[in-house]
Structures are given as structure tokens and as C-alpha cells.
Amino acid sequence: MTSRAPESSSKVVDPNSSGLGTFGGVFTPSILTILGVIMYLRFGWVVGQMGLVKTLLIVTISTAITFITGLSISAIATDQVVRAGGAYYMISRSLGIETGGAVGIPLYFAQAFSVALYTIGFAESVIQAFPGFPVTITVLALVTTVAVTALALKSADIAIKAQYVIMAAIILSLICLVFGHAAPPTELPAPENTGDVSFWAVLAVFFPAVTGIMSGVNMSGDLKDPKKSIPMGTLAAVGVGYLIYMSIPLLLSSRADANSLIADPLIMRKIAFWGDSILLGVWGATLSSAIGSILGAPRVLQALARDNILPKRLRWLGYGHGPSDEPRLGTWFTLGVVLAVVCIGDLDAIAPVLTMFFLTTYMVLNVAAGIEGFLQSPSFRPTFRVPWYLSLLGALGCIAIMFLINPAATVAAAVIVLAIYLWLERREIRTTWGDVRQGIWLSLVRAGLLNIADNADPKNWRPHLLVLSGAPTKRWHLIELATDLTHNRGLITVASILPRGARNLKQQEQMRSTIRDYLEKRGIQAFVKLIEAEDTSTGAQQLIETYGIGPLLPNTVLLGDTETDDAEARRRYFQIITKCHQAKRNIVILRNPPSQMPRMPQRIDVWWGGLQSNGGLMLILAYLLRTGIRWRSVDICLKLVVSNQAAAQAAQTNLDKLIDTLSIGAQSKIIVAEGRPFDAILRRSSATADLILMGLANPDEQFAEYYMSLQQKTVDLPPTIFVRAAEDLAFSELLQKD
């Protein structure tokens, strides 16, 4: 069942309307998430473990990946109107709704669970600072979650203003750190295995400190001008964060010894001019991150609901409130999720997986920008241009960091994203926007066509079938046979010839779409081609002459038999066969078609006339049938008629030797005529077969009489295929191994 995701499902933000600016809507939430608890509680440990130079290198490598991601985000944001949903919206409009949803759903839960992580962290720090605090960590975390959500429900603008106060607390703590003093040597014991931590392990601990740029991007639907604010605010936050992170190690390494930095998580409190300002900074960092997540998560959820990605019973989450289209219902829903997670308590087991989802989002954004830039599609015209190879380098950096942080969590996140992608793909959600996938396929097809040799290659031959079936419902047996021969590895084109002037262009397109949908619902992968002509013969000849591109032409024409008594109609039918032969297209004619192909066939009879003529192609077709599911248990029987018993022994030896070299598992049967006509032998020997393959002579001046006699020989027999190998290809080389 398919559903449609309309382009209008996300609200368009008018640049002239009220909304958040660059500083309040992007820079503030991004920088506050970057300057988080890792800076206050783990940065000293990083410096103590690595020393000053390696710490600065870690900061530079980590920030470089985030900066490249920021550049990719800026390129995408300046190319398209970014609506509610932030990163999800960008990905879905670039790489398709399946990829967007596969990343967007985990991203929503990662942001929702992050609120719980931050509020629990805030509660723990308060209880540690005030040991006699009268409530438990869980109760305080629940109260903090409700308070943070109340700010978000009141309005995004008020929540942003609250972050200004938090930013002031963080700035105050940094000023107190700059004007601080040397810390006395710690009395805490040094941790065991000090110095055994690798460079990459320490980088993995620090890297989450620079992953805050999504907080601003997720506010895209509330910005006055997303195309301006997202690049400026995101890159400014990354730059300011880098300067701060490069400065703090200088202070820490000069004011505390390595053992103190490693052993005391609150070493900054001892260094700062006013030690309690560091506590204010820690609290501000956790609360600001919680606010940023509770603002961003419902907006991603709103966009997912509006694009019909969520199940129908959750589509109400797409409703917005007021002129700013705030996702109040989504915020209430997110509050319920967060409260449930807070009650569970310990999130250490899932925290690594959440980090993987954020990094997966970074990686996919870089891939999207890299592919768009590489394809150079005329529709991709960002005002902020980034070299495509730089974006793909950022994607590789994200993958490397993910495995360095936690390989198991990386695999778990990849499995979850893949499962969601496959689920969305099965739902066949239709969109009204294009994405980069068509551009990728076009580039690959172009490269493939230019590298396909003009001359047929026996080693890589596959049937590319032009099926002259007309309406599929009338000759479905032809399409079934084509599918059994190709197994979705060759190409099938279902062709229908319309009387000239019978349908206008719009009606033809509707008919083409109807046939395509009919085939897709039955699992048939095929092209559909309609052509207007005065009669069937003229249209078929036009298709044979003109259909295809470059070296990729149908090499085999599949058509049904004709039973008409009309001499003119038979003449036109033979013209089609003659045209196929002249154009060097193999001919496959299905005679005595069943209502449907046999469900459990047992035997295919191939009437043998030698390997060099039609025999090679007949054997290949029989082998291709047997490699499919329907014909898998079938026996291929090569039948040869000889005049007497003396010839039978020599023929048996030669045929058995040939079968051994072909490696297709066929059986041989030599039939001695003993004066009997071939018609009688054919009827008696193949009456119980499920399918018969017979060679077809070259169409010449006597072909009409020849074909009518062939029809008489095969009347009332099981389904029979007439085969004429007309392609300029040595099919014997395809079959023989030496």
C-alpha cells in the first residue's frame, strides 16, 4: 500500500514573517550544546592523558569533522528552502524519503533520550554539590524535565531567551577560569593504568563535545531566513567553540599537574577565580542542552508525521499551533517519552547508540552534499559552495570516529537504520519532490553505456527481451516467460502498438502508467513502451529498428503465435519475423500458450539439430529457465532423430560427450525413426513434456508455407517455443568450457 508525502506538508517560512534570527535561533543553541559537560568534567582528563600538543591535535581533528559537516549543511541549506525538520528535511529532499526517514526516526529518539540524559546529569550534579538535598536524583530529574518542557511549550522564543541566561552563566565561568590561579596538587589517588589510554580512545571521549550543531539546524522551521541563518550561525558556533577549546588546554596544562587533571573531574573549580562559577557552568551546560533537545525533537517528529512516515495513528503529531506553527502536540508526546526514560534511570547502555545516531546524521548530510556536488545537477545551485570531495572526506571521518568510539554501538545503529529504511521502502511512500538518487542512477547508466562494447560478448550475454505482448492482461503468458528467462538480470520491455490517433499524448501516458503499475504490483521489473502505427506489423518493425540506446538494444524479440486465417494478417506477421532476422534480433515465438505457465514443471524437450545453428540458443534458454524458482527441478532432455540403429550409437556417443562439456545437466535421448515421419515421433515423444523447444528456419520466400507446416506438426502439443538465433554471436562459445 502506498501513501503520498506532499511537498506542502511542511510549512513554508516566509522570510518577512516573525521568527528567530541567526544569533538566537542557530548560534545560541549550537554553541551552548558544544560547550557542554565534557568541557567541564572531562577536558582536564584529556589534557592529563595526552599532554598539551596531542590535546590540541585532538581538538583540531574533531572540530575539522564538525566544520566540514557544517560546510555541507550550509551548501544544502543555501540550495533549498529548509522547512521544519532540520537535518531530516535536508536528507529526505536530497537522498529520498526512505533515507531521510531511516535517519530521522532514530534522530528523533536520540534527541528525546538526550533530554533525559541531560536532566539526569543536572540532577546528579546538584545532589553532589548539595549532599543534603531533600529529593532523589530521579525526582529532581523529573521536575527539571517538566520545567524545561514548560519553557518549550510556552514558546520557542522564551526558551531561547532562557538560553541567554544560561549562556551568561557559561561565559562567567570561562572568565573566572581565565583569571584563576594554579591548583594545589590533588590528594586524590591516581587512577590505575594511567598512560595506557591510546590517542584514539581519548579522541573518542572528547568528540561528543563538538557534536552540537544539530541544535540550531533543528530550529529551521522557526527561523526568519533559514538559508542565511543556518550557514552563518552553524559555522560561527563551530569557530567560536574551536577557539575556546584550543585556549582551555593552555590554561589547564599551565595551572595543574597531569595527575590532578586526570584524578579530579572538577579540577576547573579549583583553578577558577570563583570556583562555584564552574558549577553554574555545568548546570547551564546540561540545562541548555536539554532545552535545545526538547526544542529540536518535536520539530523532527512534526516533519516526519507531515511526510506520512509515521503510522496513521500518529499523524496528529504533525499539527502545528499558532502563527509560528509550534509542535505542541509533538512536545507533549516527547515529554511522555522523556519522563518514561528518566524513570528507567540508567542510560549508560543506550548512550553510545544515541551518539551513533547523531554521527550517522552527520555522515549522511556529508554524503548528500558530496553527491549533489559531484553530480553537478542543474537543480543544485547553492550560494555557499563546497568541493564535493571535502564533504565525502567528512563522511569518511564520521565513519572512522563512530568505530573508534564504539564499534558495537556503530553496528547496532547501522542495523536499526537499515531496518527502518527497508520498512519505509516496503511501504512505497510516494513523494512530490525529486531527490538525488535519479541523478546517481543517470550518471551510472551513462558511464555503463559508454563502457559497453558495441560487439556482443558471449561471456556476458543475457537476454534483453522486447516483448510484443500488447496489453499485459491479454498475453500474460508472454510476460511470465520473459520473467522466467531473465530472473531480473536481463532487461524486459513490454511493448504495445496502438492504432494511430486512437489516444492523445495524455491518454498514452496514463495507459503507460497503468501498465507499469500493473507489472510492479506483480513483481515484474520491466520497461513499458507504447508506439503508434498504422498496423501491428509497421509498429513492430519501427520498434525493432529504433528502440534502444547506444549498444544497449533488445537482442531478442518475444512474440506469440498467430492462428488467424486472414492472409493479410499472416503476411504482416511474417514481415515481423523477417524484420527481426534482418536486424539480427533473436526470435522466440511461444505457441500453444497455457493460461499460465505450469507451476511444477518436470521436463523440457529440446529437439536437437546441432550446436552451431539454433541449438546453442535453445540450450541457453532452457538453462536459464531451470535457474529460476519455477523451473528449478526440471529435466532438460536433448532429443535427436536418426534414421537407423547404426547411426544411433555414434550419435549417442557424440551427444553425451557434448553434454559433458556443456555443464548444464542435460540428458540425451536418441530416437530411431525406423521409417516413421517426424510428426509422429514428435507427438509421441513430447506429449508429456511441460515445454518444447524447436528450431526455426531462416525466413525466406517459402517461409509462409514452412511455418504453416510447423504449426500443423505442433498442434495440440504442450507449450512450444520456436527459436531462431539471428544475433551475430557464437552461442556455442557461451556454452562450451574449452
UniProtKB/TrEMBL annotation:
Superkingdom of this protein's organism: Bacteria
Tagged with keyword Transmembrane helix: yes
Membrane-spanning residues: 20-43, 55-78, 99-120, 132-153, 165-185, 197-217, 229-251, 271-296, 353-374, 386-402, 606-625
Membrane topology: Multi-pass membrane protein
Cross-referenced InterPro entries: AA-permease/SLC12A_dom (IPR004841), SLC12_C (IPR018491), SLC12A_fam (IPR004842)
Any one Pfam family match given in the protein's UniProt record, by short name: AA_permease
Domain SLC12A transporter C-terminal: 476-592
Gene3D superfamilies given in the database record: Amino acid/polyamine transporter I
Amino acid permease/ SLC12A domain: residues covered: 26-445
UniProt keyword annotation of tRNA processing present: no
Keywords for this protein: Membrane, Transmembrane, Transmembrane helix
Subcellular location: Membrane
PANTHER family, A to Z: GH08340P, SOLUTE CARRIER FAMILY 12, CATION COTRANSPORTERS
Protein name: Amino acid permease
Protein source organism: Leptothoe kymatousa TAU-MAC 1615
